[in-house]
Amino acid sequence: MTHPRPTPRLSLSSPPxxxxxxxxxxxxxxxxxxxxxxxxxxxxxxxxxxDRRATHHLVTEAxxxxxxxxxxxxxxxxxxxxxxKRDAVLDDVAARWSSLxxxxxxxxxxxxxxxxxxxxxxxxxxxDRTSLRQLEMTSLxxxxxxxxxxxxxxxxxxxxxxxxxxxxxxTGARSVxxxxxxxxxxxxxxxxxxxxxxVELAPSGITVNALCxxxxxxxxxxxxxxxxxMKDIALRKNPHGRLTRPDDVAQAVLALSQPETHWVTxxxxxxxxxxxxxx
Length: 279
Prior knowledge:
Layout: E1 20-24, H1 29-40, E2 44-49, H2 56-67, E3 73-77, H3 83-97, E4 106-111, H4 132-155, E5 164-169, H5 181-201, E6 207-213, H6 219-222, H7 227-237, H8 246-256, E7 268-271
Parallel strand pairs: 1-2, 1-4, 2-3, 4-5, 5-6, 6-7
Helix pairs in contact: 1-2, 1-8, 3-4, 4-5
């Protein structure tokens, strides 16, 4: 006897207010797709990004997708790895929320910051190899900033029980790709931060997980040396015969943001259609 598959229930609400999401890296790739998906599920979006004039059209497009669902998009073009600028963003959000009683909180924090050195470690010319400062900067942006934002949200009571935190990692945390050494180290640190935060936030009812996407054709991928070769290998390996898409990750975020997933925390979750398990 077969039973009908239950209709998925989307419950991101935080009574008495509509839910909010904070997306770090909101202007393109995984951040833009996740912002739109969360908006479609009823979330207003606060997005942080760092874009110059050449890529400002991506910001406009990301905001338009959120607005198309009738949700608000508050976007801040600033350095998310700077604590003072982080505080300025959260101060502004708190001030804008202050007219609501009680103020809302963030249901979701999505961390997808992609900025770091893609130089090799070894080279005869110091200009052509990763410096100590670049190593530190890469880890600050792509790993340590997750801890910084989480600390600020928890201390300000801007994320409480039921909150969901997601951080984007990659298989490069465990593999060697040309020029990826600094980012690989940052992703490894990010996964360690996820585990530590998951344990420390468990008593508060907040989950923390890393999402490991398959190779995805995003602006960040195009900056990696040999990215075309990486795409070719992924297409051969992936049992679905295609690359992962940003929307695949966005839909996983929605599923993992439900109340029923409160016991899923501290993991590296592959969102890749089985790509990583194929040799």
